[in-house]
């Protein structure tokens, strides 16, 4: 919602009588972060670290505080729709800003494939199907959102936000209704795979917390960015932290050792809490949420790809559709083709296990966090709370980046590819003159 009428407040900050309010901003923030991770990651983290995965959840929530504060400080000081890319460009120049764009554009396809497998696993669990069912549903999901984006259809912002609200309520219902079945004995052994496994679980869980940077693109749309962005950020951190800890704790305490083997942990908790109807409800909502998230990510990535083509950060062949209201069909099809390739790779080489795709995605996202935090350290005033938060989030992001192990190769390859492409593009432009 773009601002149209502006006024100056007593502190000299430009505000708008129209635009995002505190409540609207908080709801959008929760919707941006609370996504498909909530329906699948509790089981994956439990499989990686057992009950000790709760420490990984808690650690990511604690890390979210300075990270979210960093982006809130940047958004309130430099409100701009370019978000992290704008801050990195201000701090380090066009090449590093281009890398941010590459990280988003070329990481959305494996993220789409992973999300599709999450949704497929819920359907397979509901109908007692196997890997074939999971993969077929995943293919159908990718094809559906691709067709929708080719023809310019969109999941409305209100519908996407509504699905996120329904998911939040379901998480509370699942945790609350299953609580009578919780057993403290399920916390033993607490770290069956060793304490190092907590780091592995944390690397997976970054998927669940990706999105703290998303609201920076809407920073200019708040009525009072200087005041409302920090408030909405603080409220979102608390809400998301409570929801994630509730469902993760319930998964361990109620499902026990079976938590790591569940294909549909949310549906399982609802089945235990309110009966078979709860499992069906969880499956339907998980499928709708997956469709909504995939549609939004593909639409956003396709538009970004067209913009990168227009700006010569990717081949200009991708540029059609970059204009306002345009449909970037070529970019949509490229994203879909890469998503299908990622899906095929994990089906052929990984028995349709989405974990490699999740780690590939989180490696790129954390790279963006590192760049965004570094930009904040350079841009924000010394001795300000925002810069202090940026220093902490930069250190934490670098440490978290190390937990992704060999999947660091992906952002490293993106960095090399981006730099080589931009240099080649610059030489071509100079030779033209």
UniProtKB/TrEMBL annotation:
A family per Pfam: AA_permease_2
Ranges that cross the membrane: 27-48, 54-75, 96-123, 135-153, 160-182, 194-212, 233-257, 269-294, 332-350, 356-377, 384-401
Chief site of localization: membrane
Membrane topology: Multi-pass membrane protein
Taxonomic superkingdom: Bacteria
Keywords in alphabetical order: Cell membrane, Membrane, Transmembrane, Transmembrane helix
Subcellular location: Cell membrane
Protein name per its UniProtKB record: Amino acid permease
Organism annotation: Actinoplanes palleronii
